[in-house]
Amino acid sequence: MKTVGRVIADPAAPLFHRFDSLAGQHVLIIPHSRIFDFGRGGAAEFDEISSSGDQSRLNGFLDHLAAPLADEDTLDGIVAPAPQSISLNVSSSCNLSCSYCYAARGAFNGAQPEPMSWNTARSAIDALLNGADASAPVTIGFLGGEPFVNRPLVHRCILYAADKGQAKALDVRFSVTTNGTLIRADDIALMRAHRMAVTISIDGGASVQNSQRPSTGRRGVGSFAALAKAVEPLLASPQAGPLFETLVLGELVRARDHRGLALSLFFWRTKEGEELDFLVRAQGRRGPLWLALEAKLAVQNVPPLQLPKSLARELPELRDVWIVTPGGSEARLSDGCIQVPIPKLAERLVQALDGA
Ligand code: SF4
Hints:
The chain has ten helices and 13 strands.
């Protein structure tokens, strides 16, 4: 295994935390992440040492108590995995002035005086995509302040990461945490064209939202009306992805019933979070054929999909992955993965079974 970094305990961090419970008295030894129960008299001895001011005596006691066993690694020897997701704090300002804002409207009390630059964002995305594990989704999140104050950067990052992710055969996904008031039609189009989770912060109804989250620089103007107007088109079709999955399912069922194809349909979900929209077992002329189908709303720049590891293990004979899209043209996306527009799905199934 390659060591890519080490977790070093901060010398200023506390070393222990003493606490009692109904079960007795305990100490959490923080650098070792271990909790010990005190036996009879043990707590008094520990308290005497920890309050003596003798740091080397305390360190010796803690080290003795929590020393790793022969077959264990020390905490600072743990391999730090390459990140699989990043959050980009793209904006240093906000169009709202919430009474409780933790971020000083994105400037973080002067720690972030400028919005993020393209060079910084691109470096972070490059580092993420260059080191990510291709067998799991990669996520890029956008935060602020209000991220859509820096809309051009958000859009540029998404298009760049989607392209680069496709070239690297990565499943790149996105998320944004926004106050929702600045969302425009082009943002929604971008969200729909990419796999993007959208979290909108809102405080209760209009009166609570308006009193706690007024618009910046507009005395007495609340934000509820702007929020409601901006998110209405987004809410009008929040289920576009699942709806398309349903359309694909309908198409598969129609192909089975109207073309007499011997298809069995399954889903693949594991408790570890691996999933596949459809697993199809079909009877070809020479034998059974397994297909993995994923429904995607994108039409262009569709990234190839790798089979979930658990599925590849269970069904080693499964090699063909089809990404079904609402339109576009049929295209080979990678070895074993093709894009099939939904109008061609039934015909493509017939061809595959004829050849299988
Ligand atoms: S929307 Fe978020 S960043 Fe903006 S002022 Fe409110 S809490 Fe702060």
